[in-house]
Design brief:
8-stranded mixed sheet; disordered C terminus; 9-stranded mixed sheet; 35 helices
Length: about 1050
C-alpha cells in the first residue's frame, strides 16, 4: 500500500471483512504481498496510477514555483524607472529568504557598491583632470616662449594673445584609459568572486561528510536550510522507535518480568531477566517457547544480519517480537518444531490451525504430542495431559474470558502446576493489561488446552468450543521500543530552539505514551494527572475538523470526524468542508494559528493531515502577535520563534510525498521508505534514526557559520583593498598593488581562504543557540563590527606604510611610491600578513550574547587543530609568501633580494596586532550592544518588538488557500466511494460513481450545464442510473 506497516486487503464477500470492517481492495504500485494469495486487476498504469499522480503533483509544484519566478522577472523588467529603482535598492525582502538567496542579494549589493565607487572614482579623476588641464590650462601657460610653445604635444600657440593653450591630443586618450583601468580595478577588487567557490566547497564537503552521519543529501541547498529548522514533524515508527516490535513486559508462571532499555545487549534484557529467574529450570522456558513458536505464522522469522549484526524481522511484526523473546531464551524455532511436524499434513507443523479473525481476536494451533525421551532439558517436548494440545494467542479480554485456570509454575520435569482462575485473578490480569495499555503497549495473552483425542466432529468443528476451558500461560506487553538515543536527541533539539512534533498513525493513547517517553511532551505540557493539556495532543480527525472551513450550505456527507467519547476517529455524517476552485479544503489560517503552537502529538494522522500541518506552519505569522506569544510563554513556557517557521518533515510512505515536497526540508527513510518518498525528499536518512536528523541540524548550522566566516574575512579584505585602490588612484594615479600581486591576494582571500574557513567541522556548541531566522541578515551585528573594526586597523597600518615609511619602527624605508621599489614591496608584504592573521580572527563568529556569557568565544585559536585544512593552508600561505618576496623579484614587482629580517619582523608584528585588536572590538561590541539587541541577534537580528496582527492581516491569513493537491482529491474520492458503497449496500465501483455524481451536484449552483454534462457521463447505463 505504500505504507511501512502490514495492512490486510480484502474484497466484499470473501469472509475477511468480519465484524463490519470496511473492505479495502486497493493497492498501489510498488506494494509487496507479504502473506496470502489472490488475483490482481490492474486499473491504472503510468500517470493514471496513484503513484503517477503523486509524481505529477510534485512536478506541478516545481513548475508553479518556476512560473512565479518568471512572472516576477517579467514584472521587474516592466519599466526603466523600476529597473533604476531596483538598482539603488539594497537588501532583500522582509518576508525572509534562504541562505542562497541571501548570498545572491549580498553579492549583488557588493557589486552595486563596487560599481558606484568605481564610477565615482572615474568621474572624480576625470573631472579633476579636465578642470586642471583644460579649464586651468595645465602646464601649457608655463611653456610659452616668444616664438611659441616649448612643447607642442598637448599645447597650441595662440598668436593673438601670445599664450600656450591646452588642446586634446592622442596622449589624452591614454590618460582617460588609465583612469578607466583604475575604475575597473576597483570594481574587480570589490566583486566577491570567491563567494561561489566558498559556498560550493562548504556544501560539497558537508554533503560528503553528512553521508558518513547517515544523511544522504539529494539537494545541496537543503543542507543549510536544515540549520534554520524551527520545527521537526517526525514519524514514530522507525524514526523515534527501533521499528522492531519487542516484548517489554510479561507475567508468566506467577512472576512479573520487565524489559529495560539499554541493558542486556542488542536484543534487550527481558529474556536475560527471565532466564535469571528460571535459573536451571529449562522446562519453564520450554513451555513459554512452545506457546509462542507453535502458534505463530510460518512466514514470520527473526534472523541476525551477518554483516551488521542487527536483528532482521521477516513477516508479522507481532509474531517476530514473540520469536525474538524465544531467541533470548535460547530456543531454536526449527529444532523445537521438528517433533511436531506431520508428514501427511499440509501445515508446516501440527495437525490443524485456526487462523486469526477480527471477530474472535485470536488464533490457535493444534499439535500432536509424540513420545520422546524424558524432558530433562529445554530441547525436549513437554509431557501433555493428553494426545493433543491447542495453543491459543490473542486479545487478553477474549483469551482470559475463555480460560478456567492459569499456570503458576513448571517443574523441572515439565509438569505444569495450575490453579483455578477466579475473579480476583482475572482482575489482577486485567489491571496489568490496563497498565500496559496506558503505557501504549499492545497486549497479548497466551494459553493452551489439552485433548485426550480428536473431539467429536473433528478439528474443523466449532472453534468457540475448541478455544474454551483454556489454561492461561502468560500475558505479555509488546511495543516498538524507543531508540536509546532519541530522548537525548530531542533534548538537544529543545536546547537548540527546535520544536519536535510527532505525527503517527497510532492510537492517541499509544502516541501520548511514546511522546512522554521521548520527552516530546515535557512536564509543562502535562496536567497534574500526567495527561496532555488541552490542545497538546489530538487525533488527525480533530485537527482536520478544527483547521478547515466548513460549507454549511451543502448537505451533510459521510466523512471522518473525532468521537470525543471513544477518543478516536469515526466515519459519520457531518458538514462538508469548504473547497476551493481546485477541489481542495480551505485552511482557516486564524484557527490554525490558535492551534499549532501547542500541538505536540498528532495521532491517527493521515498524509493529508501532515500536509496541512506543514503548509499551515510555513504560512503562519503568529510570531507577529505579541500578546499571543507572551500568553503562551506565561501559561505553558512555549516560545514561538520570532520569524517564519522552517519546517522539516520525515516520511516513509508513498502518501507522504506531497508533505515531503511541501516542507522546507523533507527526510525520507532509507530503510523503510518507499521509492516515491525518496524521490520527493531532500535528504534520505540511511539509518531511519532521529539522531541523524539532529546531526543534519548541526551540519546545516555549520554550513551557515562557515560561509559567514568566509564572508567576514573577504569583506574585510574588500573594504581595505577598495580603500587603498581609491587612495592610490588619487595620490599616485595607480594602485599600490600590481596586477600580479593582486592575483596572489585574490588567491589568498578566495581559493585558500574558502578551503580554510569553509571546511570547519561542526561542534556540539552549535546546538546551544536558537536557529537563525529567515529574515536575519547574513551579516550580523558582531560581523559588521569585525569587518569595520579590522578594516580601520588595516587601513591605518597600510596608510602609515604608504605615506610615512621613514617612521616605521625596526624597518624604516625611503619614500618611493613606484612599483618594484623597497617601499611598495614592504607595503605588499604587510598587506598579506594582515590578511593572514585576520583569518585567525575570522574563525570565530561571536554574537554579543555569546561574548557576554562565555570566554571560549574570545579564543580565536580554540579547536583549530580539529581542522587540518586550516592549519595546512596557513602554513602553505606563509611559506609561499616568503618564497614570493624572496625570489619573486621583477616578476611580481618586488625589490631584488627581498626584505630584511627587520622588515619581516615589522610585517609579522603588524599582522599579529590584529589579534589583540579583536579583543578590543569584542569589548566594544559588548559595551555598546543593548541586551535586547543581543537576544534578537541570536534569531533574526531585526531589532524591534513584535506587534499584534492587524485585522487586515488576520483576515488575509484566514483566506489564504492551500495549493491544489490532485492526490488528495483521488484519495478522498476513493474513500468516500467505499463509504457510499457501504451505506447504500452496493458495489465499490457503484459507490465511486455515486461519489462522482455527488461532486457533479455540487457544481449545479455554479453551472447547470456542467452538472448535466457530468451526470450524463456518470450514468452511462440504465441499470446504474436506476441503482444511483
Amino acid at each position: 500500500t505504500g505504507e511501512t506497516a502490514l495492512i490486510p486487503k480484502s474484497v466484499a464477500g470473501d469472509g475477511t471483512n468480519e465484524g463490519g470492517k470496511e473492505c479495502d481492495p486497493f493497492v498501489v504500485s510498488g506494494t509487496n504481498v507479504m502473506q496470502g494469495t489472490g488475483l490482481m486487476l490492474v486499473l491504472a498504469v503510468g500517470s493514471n496510477s496513484i503513484q503517477g499522480k503523486i509524481l505529477e503533483r510534485i512536478r506541478e509544484q516545481e513548475d508553479d514555483d518556476n512560473g512565479d519566478e518568471e512572472d516576477m522577472a517579467k514584472d521587474d523588467a516592466g519599466s526603466a524607472f523600476s529597473g533604476l529603482r531596483a538598482f539603488f535598492t539594497f537588501g532583500g525582502p522582509d518576508s525572509g529568504a534562504t541562505l542562497m538567496d541571501k548570498l545572491d542579494i549580498l553579492a549583488v549589493d557588493i557589486g552595486k557598491m563596487g560599481l558606484i565607487v568605481a564610477v565615482a572614482v572615474f568621474l572624480i579623476m576625470l573631472t579633476q583632470w579636465l578642470l586642471t588641464d583644460f579649464v586651468g590650462g595645465g602646464p601649457c601657460p608655463d611653456l610659452a616662449d616668444e616664438d611659441g610653445c616649448l612643447s607642442a604635444k598637448v599645447c597650441t600657440w595662440s598668436a593673438d594673445d601670445g599664450t600656450c593653450n591646452r588642446h586634446f591630443g592622442t596622449e589624452d586618450v591614454s590618460t582617460i584609459l588609465d583612469y578607466f583601468i583604475v575604475a575597473i580595478t576597483i570594481l574587480v577588487v570589490a566583486v566577491p568572486e570567491g563567494l561561489p567557490l566558498a559556498v560550493t566547497l562548504a556544501l560539497a564537503v558537508s554533503m560528503r561528510r553528512m553521508t558518513e552521519d547517515a544523511n544522504q543529501v539529494k539537494h545541496m541547498d537543503s543542507c543549510e536550510t536544515m540549520g534554520s529548522a524551527t520545527t521537526i514533524c517526525s514519524d514514530k515508527t522507525g524514526t523515534l522507535t527501533e521499528n522492531k516490535m519487542t516484548v517489554m513486559t510479561a507475567r508468566y508462571a506467577g512472576e512479573r518480568h520487565e524489559h529495560v532499555v539499554g541493558r542486556g545487549g542488542p536484543d534487550g534484557s527481558l529474556g536475560a531477566a527471565m532466564l535469571s529467574a528460571f535459573q536451571t529450570n529449562g522446562a519453564k522456558a520450554r513451555l513459554l517457547c512452545e506457546s509462542i513458536l507453535l502458534n505463530v505464522s510460518p512466514t514470520s522469522a527473526v534472523t541476525i544480519d551477518g554483516g551488521t549484526g542487527t536483528t532482521v524481522y521477516v513477516g508479522n511484526p507481532t509474531d517476530c517480537a514473540l520469536i525474538k523473546l524465544t531467541r533470548q531464551l535460547g530456543c531454536d524455532a526449527e529444532s523445537l518444531r521438528g517433533p511436531f511436524k506431520e508428514g501427511s499434513s499440509m501445515l508446516d507443523w501440527g495437525v490443524h490451525s485456526i487462523p486469526f479473525s477480527s471477530e474472535r481476536k485470536r488464533m490457535s494451533w493444534i499439535v500432536r504430542w509424540v513420545e520422546q525421551p524424558p524432558a530433562s532439558s529445554s530441547s525436549s517436548p513437554l509431557p501433555y495431559a493428553g494426545r493433543y494440545r491447542l495453543y491459543s494467542k490473542g486479545a487478553p479480554t477474549q483469551v482470559i474470558a475463555a480460560c478456567t485456570s492459569f499456570a503458576t509454575d513448571v517443574t523441572a520435569e515439565g509438569v505444569v502446576k495450575t490453579q483455578p482462575l477466579e475473579d480476583k485473578d482475572k482482575e489482577a490480569f486485567t489491571d496489568m493489561v490496563a497498565a500496559c495499555q496506558d503505557k501504549g503497549l499492545r497486549t497479548l495473552a497466551l494459553a493452551y488446552r489439552d485433548f485426550e483425542d480428536v473431539p467429536h466432529g473433528g478439528w474443523n468443528g466449532d472453534s468457540a468450543g475448541l478455544e474454551s476451558n483454556l489454561t492461561l500461560v502468560a500475558v505479555v506487553g509488546i511495543e516498538d521500543p524507543l531508540r536509546a538515543s532519541v530522548p537525548g536527541a530531542i533534548a538537544e533539539c529543545h536546547k537548540a530552539g527546535i520544536d519536535v512534533r510527532m505525527c503517527t498513525g497510532d492510537a492517541l493513547t499509544t502516541a501520548v505514551a511514546i511522546a512522554r517517553g521521548c520527552r516530546i511532551l515535557r512536564r509543562n505540557d502535562l496536567d497534574e494527572d500526567g495527561a496532555p493539556k488541552a490542545g497538546f495532543a489530538m487525533t488527525g480527525a480533530e485537527f482536520d475538523d478544527r483547521v478547515h472551513r466548513k460549507d454549511p450550505s451543502k448537505p451533510r456527507v459521510v466523512r471522518r470526524v473525532f468521537d470525543r467519547e471513544a477518543k478516536d476517529s469515526v466515519d459519520r455524517l457531518a458538514e462538508p468542508f469548504l473547497l476551493d476552485g481546485a477541489g481542495n479544503k480551505v485552511l482557516d489560517q486564524a484557527a490554525f494559528d490558535d492551534l499549532w503552537p501547542t500541538l505536540r502529538v498528532l495521532a491517527r494522522c493521515q498524509p493529508e493531515d501532515k500536509l496541512a500541518l506543514v503548509r499551515g506552519m510555513r504560512k503562519s505569522r503568529a510570531f507577529l502577535d505579541e500578546a499571543r506569544c507572551a500568553r503562551l510563554y506565561h501559561e505553558h513556557g512555549i516560545r514561538i520563534f520570532p520569524d517564519y517557521q522552517v519546517v522539516a518533515v520525515t516520511g516513509d510512505g508513498t502518501n507522504d510525498a506531497p508533505a515531503l515536497k511541501s516542507a522546507n526540508v523533507g527526510f525520507a527513510m532509507g530503510i523503510a521508505g518507499t521509492e516515491t518518498a525518496k524521490q520527493a525528499c531532500d535528504i534520505i536518512l540511511l539509518d531511519d534514526n532521529f539522531t541523524s536528523i539532529v546531526k543534519a541540524v548541526m551540519w546545516g548550522r555549520n554550513i551557515f557559520d562557515s560561509i559567514s566566516k568566509f564572508i567576514q574575512f573577504q569583506l574585510t579584505v574588500n573594504v581595505v583593498a577598495i580603500t587603498l585602490a581609491v587612495i592610490g588612484a588619487f595620490a599616485f594615479n595607480e594602485s599600490p598593488l600590481s596586477a600580479v600581486q593582486m592575483l596572489w591576494v585574490n588567491m589568498i582571500m578566495d581559493s585558500l581562504a574558502s578551503l580554510a574557513l569553509a571546511t570547519e567541522p561542526p561542534t556540539k556548541e552549535l546546538l546551544d543557540r536558537m536557529p537563525y531566522g529567515r529574515r536575519r541578515p547574513i551579516i550580523s551585528i558582531a560581523m559588521g563590527a569585525n569587518i569595520i573594526g579590522h578594516a580601520i586597523y588595516q587601513a591605518a597600518i597600510l596608510n602609515w606604510v604608504l605615506f610615512f615609511p621613514q617612521s616605521l619602527p625596526l624597518a624604516p624605508v625611503p619614500f618611493e611610491p613606484t612599483q618594484g621599489s623597497l617601499h611598495w614591496s614592504l607595503f605588499f608584504n604587510v598587506f598579506v600578513m594582515l590578511q593572514l592573521f585576520n583569518e585567525f580572527n575570522s574563525r570565530r563568529l561571536p554574537t554579543a550574547q555569546k561574548l557576554r556569557t562565555t570566554w571560549s568565544e574570545w579564543n580565536v585559536f580554540g579547536g583549530m587543530t580539529r581542522n587540518p585544512f586550516f592549519v595546512g593552508i596557513m602554513i602553505f600561505t606563509f611559506g609561499m609568501q616568503v618564497f614570493i618576496v624572496k625570489y619573486g623579484g621583477v616578476a611580481v614587482n618586488i625589490v631584488s633580494g627581498g626584505l630584511t629580517l627587520d622588515q619581516w619582523l615589522f610585517s609579522v608584528a603588524a599582522g599579529a596586532g590584529g589579534l589583540p585588536w579583536q579583543v578590543v572590538i569584542n569589548s566594544i561590541v559588548v559595551a555598546i550592544s543593548p541586551a535586547k539587541a543581543c537576544e534578537e541577534e541570536e534569531t533574526n537580528a531585526k531589532i524591534g518588538r513584535a506587534r499584534p496582527l492587524t485585522p487586515e492581516e488576520i483576515e488575509e491569513a484566514a483566506h489564504e488557500e492551500t495549493p491544489p493537491s490532485r492526490w488528495d482529491e483521488v484519495r478522498i474520492g476513493v474513500r468516500r466511494g467505499a463509504l457510499y458503497s457501504k451505506v447504500f449496500r452496493t458495489s465499490v465501483r457503484t459507490g465511486l460513481k455515486i461519489n462522482k455524481l455527488a461532486r457533479c451536484a455540487a457544481t449545479a449552483e455554479r453551472d447547470i450545464r456542467s452538472f448535466r454534462r457530468c451526470s450524463t457521463q456518470v450514468s452511462t447505463r440504465p441499470s446504474l442510473a436506476k441503482e444511483d
